[in-house]
């Protein structure tokens, strides 16, 4: 009773709209305190990243007994998640002689002998700028163990932990030797302006103290056999105040939150394609700064291009004092008509803390030549190109004021020309209805047509991969092989690009009674392609030929089983 209770609600996603439980039996000391952290690992040649969002409370119970903390809810990825309720047993706080003796012993250990210190590389920065915080443990006593009691919440910052070596090293500070260990190092990105605090870290230690020898002991009269006792001591670092200045206003039109030193590049995998063939368009943001927090931004494409939501590829890493690397936004574009097109230049603005100014960068325009493709797969493609609709300058003609009109003695009523004019609107209306029925039918069959041609399109992409193999273009080979498998799966099972995953493969293969062995081979082949793209030079040409043959065979096998 009377002790502080720390409760944390964590979810391994970017979360929002957190709603805490009703703490009716507790007094809230602080909270909710949101924090976001990310970590990266590199296993078997493949990088993995995890994001964790935590909301913490510091509570004190109002009464003794078994108390219940209810459920909290939070939104993530369009879904609502709910935590489980937990029970806490609150008992009366009873002091005893052992605790008093322990306090007396810990008072003999001064703060200069054992302490933890937090340092930062700067105390003043802009919103969105990064700082490095380091927590180090300094000791001149013998430590039996250490235990982290309170990990700093770092509210108001986006946290990215840096891997550290926690082994003790000897350092001389003001002429005094210490054993020093780095406990935690993290890059913090300020998410709001104002005065923020680097929270203290609290560590519980077990200090080994030598007992005084008993010279009256007949078995150890000279104190040769030392005895030790473990004393518990809790240490806590001092908080640090950080001043975060807001970004200058007004903010430019093409500013999307980037702070640092950023470069922008745009590229396509092919500038000459046939109609209805895919183009991979990449926007690459590189440099250093808050790259991990950057999201896709508004980009303009030709109106006759079908554009899918971008795939975000995060290739950032933690440097000494900032995040570096690159963030790639990969768009899938499908031109529907032949002709000469142009992907407009992309403008991007970032704030440079060194110059304290906004800087704009711009890509070059990318020309795209679209050739006449095969028979279009959907009914929507029969509509005329938008660029073919032109306004004629002869639509409105000059009205003549003088005319030589003559009345001819001919009977117009019931003549052939009369019946043509009379029946033409009805015939045109009937033709329009028939046309709309055909278009609707074609639209309904577009998915079926796409599924039917899935194998043909995949085999065509595999032929391109074979060309890259002969030219020793390994990276392009693996990329085309992987695209052929993903494209075949998406077309054959009518799966949207945004829903492509190994889980969706398992779902649809099971739904259409595809053998589990075939499913495992398909997923394994995709994984091999994905891994090889990061290290293409490590694979020999013979193994690449075997992979190409395996891709051709697995597509045929899935095709036969789906029938």
Task: For this entry, give a set of tags.
563 residues, alpha+beta, 39% strand, elongated
Compile the SSE list and pairings.
Blueprint: E1 4-11, E2 16-19, E3 26-43, E4 46-61, E5 65-69, E6 73-76, E7 79-82, E8 86-90, H1 97-107, E9 114-120, E10 124-126, E11 130-139, E12 142-150, E13 157-161, E14 169-173, E15 176-190, E16 194-198, E17 202-210, E18 228-236, E19 240-245, E20 255-268, E21 272-274, E22 279-289, E23 305-307, E24 311-318, E25 323-335, E26 339-343, E27 347-352, E28 357-362, E29 366-371, H2 416-452, H3 454-470, H4 474-492, H5 502-511, H6 516-534, H7 541-562
Parallel strand pairs: 3-13, 10-19, 20-27, 21-29
Antiparallel strand pairs: 1-4, 2-6, 3-4, 5-8, 6-7, 9-11, 11-15, 12-17, 13-15, 14-15, 16-19, 17-18, 20-22, 22-25, 23-25, 24-25, 26-29, 27-28
Helix pairs in contact: 3-4, 3-7, 4-6, 4-7, 6-7
Task: Write structural notes for this entry.
- With 563 residues, this protein is an alpha+beta fold.
- The chain is built from seven helices and 29 strands.
- It has helices spanning 97-107, 416-452, 454-470, 474-492, 502-511, 516-534, 541-562, and strands at 4-11, 16-19, 26-43, 46-61, 65-69, 73-76, 79-82, 86-90, 114-120, 124-126, 130-139, 142-150, 157-161, 169-173, 176-190, 194-198, 202-210, 228-236, 240-245, 255-268, 272-274, 279-289, 305-307, 311-318, 323-335, 339-343, 347-352, 357-362, 366-371.
- Strands 1, 3, 4, 9, 11, 13, 14 and 15 form an eight-stranded mixed β-sheet that branches. Strands 20, 22, 23, 24, 25, 27 and 28 form a seven-stranded mixed β-sheet that branches. It has a three-stranded antiparallel β-sheet with strand order 2-6-7, with no helix packed on it.
- Strand 6 and strand 7 form a beta hairpin.
- Helix 3 packs antiparallel against helix 4 (474-492).
- The longest helix is centred in the last third of the chain and has 37 residues, at 416-452.
- It starts with a strand and ends with a helix.
- The model is unreliable at 96-100 and 376-396 (pLDDT under 50).
